[in-house]
Design brief:
The complex is a heterodimer of chains A (214) and B (483). With 214 residues, chain A is α+β, with helices and mostly antiparallel strands. Chain A contains seven helices and four strands; from the N terminus they run H-E-H-H-E-E-H-H-E-H-H. The chains are: A alpha+beta (214), B mainly alpha (483). Chain B: This is Transporter.
Chain lengths: 214, 483
């Protein structure tokens, strides 16, 4: 009777030992780089931290499969000083049956961010070997930012060119007007005009000193 | 009272700055440091300075002399010396046309990079995420983010030269902008160019100084500078060193393209170009050396970062393979740990040997790059590792732009000046001429002046001789075509 009680008590742990082993078919290797991630604030990896990890995975599984997973459904083994270990997930209905690798992977990927935050790590420092991270979608603004700067610069340059061309034209017009005004005062032009009116211009009354130089 | 038909620089300073702006270009930044590294570091300065003395300064002086005396662009100036030399002038104009066509593309790239620097994360700092968001893009993984940005996102390079990749709209827009800005700078000829060169000649020095200070304070910069300045004298026995030194002087000073003749043709007749020629040549060489110090500081920084990253990757590989505690291997004792692990676990270590990288600082330093690889890939890689990288990026690419634009001004002036001597391109510059008669009149005066001034000129002997022979022969009426 006692033997049988002992047998049934030991059975779960024995089963667990058999279910969780390195290179398990349905298991994943996890690698933590706590000191790299947190430096001075790094926490010691102990039983309690491991419990937190198991709880996080249980949460991820429950969230994904909509079943109630318990911390005891997450089995951890083969811990190394690196802080790496293997874990497997047992089904809540039948502790001797393992949940398939694909479901575990999908569950972990879906809640990866949450698991990272619980353990104060990130995708690089909390490594699930074989599980690809889901990276944030790149933020694409409506107009690429370079186009805005380009638009500003080419606008300014275009305005500069237009301004210079217009000022050239304006200056030319102004010069032409000045030349035209000068010609108005020109004696020759006056003489021509008087000749055109069929008269003779009498230079003795002209104001220019051309003919009378001392 | 005839108005002077030819534009002039507003002051000799403008002329000197224009020459400096033209001569100090991208070659000083991305070719000279490479040559220095390839040909034995500090030792390369010996053939370089020797060539400067033997070919650089004399040819520079010659071009300024011709330009200033003839007061014509390269075609007119060479034809005035001897009609048989007219082809030389024509060839230099054609070369300048080809040069202008492709040189502005580099300015377009500088614009592209400059505009992309106004982002919180520089686009070449990290690989973009692939389509199913599981990791970086495969192409980018194989190369590096900076190479990916240059070859894929900037150029969108096609697999071979036979395959046309089509027009890249981003590049086309930047190219258009580069030409529009060039037009703005030369729109009034020397009047506008003269004002622009104040900025394009001086700003690169400001940036280089800032980069020198920043570069010298970077981690590992001194490795690079030390590497550059340790001379390897055996390189001097290699004739390629001397050839490269001569070529570098020639292209760096921009000799033979007609730009210097064009610039000098806008000088006052009695300008002291002898002193200016020496000043500009020395400034050009000084800038090359200055820029190579900066480049090597940056090289040193980049090489040290790459070396330390390599060590870090090795460290992680060892930690993961042997499941050791994280702080058992640090960057400093990677090599000792490799030795220790090799002896303790030889079979396990043997499995790793193909994944283990060989981290060597010397190898990183000796990867010499030149040209666009240096300017757009190596430098942007170094910049992304600096704190406040957006600021450094903007400064750097703006400097590249100024260097490129300054050289473009010279090249364009080399084309427009001789053309303007033949025809009047009123759209490109402001016409200051009052009709062809005035010009003819002026040319007659000018030539007679030349004749009387010739014995007193400081031109080199062969110009003196050929002028005397040929000018006396040609009647002044023939002036119209080629004066």
């Amino acid at each position: 009777m006692l033997g049988r009680i002992v047998f049934f008590l030991c059975l779960p742990s024995v089963l667990a030992a058999q279910l969780c082993k390195p290179n398990a078919a349905e298991g994943f290797k996890v690698r933590l780089s706590i000191k790299t991630a947190l430096g001075d604030k790094a926490y010691e990896w102990n039983r309690n931290q491991r419990f937190l990890f198991q709880a996080a995975i249980a949460f991820a599984m429950s969230h994904h499969l909509d079943l109630e997973f318990n911390v005891s459904n997450i089995l951890v083994c083969d811990e190394t000083p690196r802080v790496s270990f293997w874990f497997v997930v047992t089904s809540p209905d039948d502790p001797s049956r393992l949940v398939g690798k694909e479901s575990v992977e999908l569950a972990v990927r879906a809640s990866r961010g949450r698991i990272n935050n619980i353990l104060l790590l990130n995708d690089a420092t909390l490594e699930f070997v074989g599980v690809l991270p889901t990276l944030a979608a790149p933020v694409k603004p409506a107009t690429p930012s370079w186009l805005i700067v380009f638009g500003v610069v080419i606008g300014i340059v275009g305005a500069g060119i237009v301004f210079l061309l217009v000022s050239t034209v304006v200056q030319k017009k102004r010069k032409e007007n000045e030349v035209a005004e000068e010609e108005d005062d020109d004696e020759e032009a006056q003489m021509k005009r008087t000749a055109g009116n069929e008269g003779i211009y009498n230079t003795s009354f002209s104001e220019s000193d051309r003919n009378t130089q001392m | 009272m005839a108005k002077d038909a030819r534009d002039n620089w507003e002051s000799p300073t403008q002329f000197v700055l224009a020459c400096v702006s033209y001569a100090v270009g991208l070659g000083n930044v991305w070719r000279f440091p490479y040559l220095c590294q390839m040909h034995g570091g500090g030792g390369f300065l010996i053939p370089y300075l020797l060539m400067l003395l033997l070919e650089g300064v004399p040819l520079f002086y010659l071009e300024l002399a011709i330009g200033q005396k003839m007061r014509l662009g390269s075609i007119g100036a060479w034809t005035a010396i001897s009609p048989y030399l007219g082809g030389l002038g024509l060839a230099s104009v054609v070369t300048s046309v080809y040069l202008c066509l492709y040189y502005n593309i580099i300015n377009a790239w500088s614009f592209w990079y400059l505009f992309h620097s106004f982002q919180s994360i520089l686009p070449w700092a990290a690989c973009p995420v692939n389509s199913n968001r599981t990791g970086p893009m495969e192409e980018c993984e194989k190369a590096s983010p900076t190479q990916y940005f240059f070859y894929r996102e900037t150029l969108n390079i096609s697999p071979s030269i036979e395959k046309s990749g089509g027009i890249q709209t981003g590049q086309a827009l930047c190219f258009l902008l580069a030409w529009v800005i060039t037009y703005l700078f030369i729109i009034r000829g020397v009047k506008s160019t003269g004002k622009v060169v104040y900025f394009t000649a001086t700003f690169p020095y400001v940036v280089l100084l800032i980069y020198l200070i920043r570069g010298m304070t970077l981690h590992g910069a001194l490795n690079g500078v030390k590497y550059m300045f340790t001379p390897k004298m055996e390189e001097l026995a290699n004739p390629t060193t001397w050839i490269n030194a001569a070529t570098q002087i020639f292209f760096s000073l921009g000799l033979g393209f007609g730009s210097l003749i064009a610039f000098a043709s806008y000088n006052q007749y009695h300008n002291n170009f002898e002193r200016q020629a020496i000043i500009v040549s020395l400034i050009n060489s000084g800038t090359s050396i200055f820029a190579s110090i900066v480049t090597f500081a940056i090289y040193g920084f980049k090489a040290t970062i790459n070396y330390e990253n390599c060590l870090d990757r090795t460290r992680i590989l060892l930690l993961n393979s042997f499941n050791l505690a994280e702080d058992s291997i640090t960057i400093n004792n990677v090599f000792e740990m490799i030795e220790k692990l090799n002896t303790t676990f030889p079979e396990q270590f043997a499995e790793l040997s193909n994944k283990l990288e060989d981290c060597n600082l010397e190898n990183e330093l000796s990867t010499a790059v030149e040209g666009t690889g240096l300017a757009f890939i190596v430098y942007s890689e170094a910049i992304k590792n600096m704190p406040l990288s957006q600021l450094w990026s903007v400064l750097y690419f703006f400097m590249l732009l100024m260097l490129g634009m300054g050289s473009m001004l010279g090249n364009i002036t080399a084309i427009t000046t001789p053309l303007r001597d033949f025809k009047f391109l009123s759209r490109v510059s402001n016409e200051a001429l009052n009709g062809k008669r005035t010009k003819q009149h002026l040319e007659e005066i000018r030539l007679s002046k030349l004749w009387t001034k010739l014995p007193l000129s400081r031109c080199l002997p062969f110009i003196f001789v050929s002028l005397k022979i040929h000018l006396f022969r040609r009647p002044l009426a023939q002036c119209e075509l080629a004066c």
